[in-house]
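Structure ticket #2291
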Amino acid sequence: MLSYRHSFHAGNFADVLKHIVQIEILEHLRKKDKAFEYIDTHSGAGLYHLHSKNMQKLQEYTNGIAKLDAEQFPEIKSYFEAINSFNQTNELEFYPGSPAIAKYFLRPQDKGWLFELHPQDFEHLSNNINRNRKVKITKSDGLKGMLGLVPTASRRALILIDPSYEIKTEYQLVIKSVIKAYKKFSTATYAIWYPVVDRKNVDLMEKALEESGIKNIQRFELALAEDSSGHGMTSSGMFVINPPWTLQNKMADLLPKLSKSLTGQKHLYQCDILVEE
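Resolution: structure written out below.
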C-alpha cells in the first residue's frame, strides 16, 4: 500500500494534465479576494529533482514536460511560470508536485492542507514545503483527512485527490469518499485524478459519479496510446466537480495541442461533460 513513489514518474504526461487543471482552478479561485483552502489528499514529496536516481530510472518526464515548448503554449503561461520558479536557470532541473504548485499560488489569506502517508515522502514533503501558518503537513490518510476538514471555514476550496490506485479497491474508495465529502461541502471544487491501466476500473468510477446525484462534472483525459490490455498506463484523466466555467472551453482547445506535442497525434484525448450542471 505504501510502495508507490511518485519520484519515478514526476513530470510525465499525467502530471502535465493534472497540474494544468490544478492551476486553472487555483487561478479561478484567486480572482476573488476572499480566502480559499487547498486540500491535497496524496501529496507525495512535493518537489522532484529530474536528475535524481529515481527520476533517471524511467525518465518519464521525457514524454511529458520535456516535450513542451512554453512559446508554443501561451495559454498555459502560468504553468510554465510555476515550474520556472523552482529552477534557477533555463535548464529544467526540478519539477514541482501539486503541493509545491499550490503553495506557489496560495496567497497570505489562503490555507493549504497536505496529507502524505509514505514515511520517506512525508519526510521529503516536510523538507520541500516549508511549514507556515498557511500550510499544514500531516502524515495521515488523506481521504479521512479530507472528510475531517470539510466544510472548510472559508467555504471555498480546491480538493485534489490523486492516489496511486495500487490497490483496485481505491477506485471505488475515492468515489465513495468524494460523495461523502460532497454531501457535507457541495460548493467545493473536487479534482480527481485517475490512471487508465484497465479501462473497466475507470468506467466503474464514471458510473458511480453519474449515479451519485452530483451535478456539474467534467472529464479531461490525455493519452500516450490507445487503450491496451498490456501492462502500464496508457492514459490518465481528471474528473472535476464544480469546475470553473472557463475550464471546459480552455481544455477543449488545449488538449489537441498537447496530444500533438506529446504523441504526434491530435485525437488521443477526451474532453466532455459527464453530468450537466
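Closing remark: The mean pLDDT is 93.
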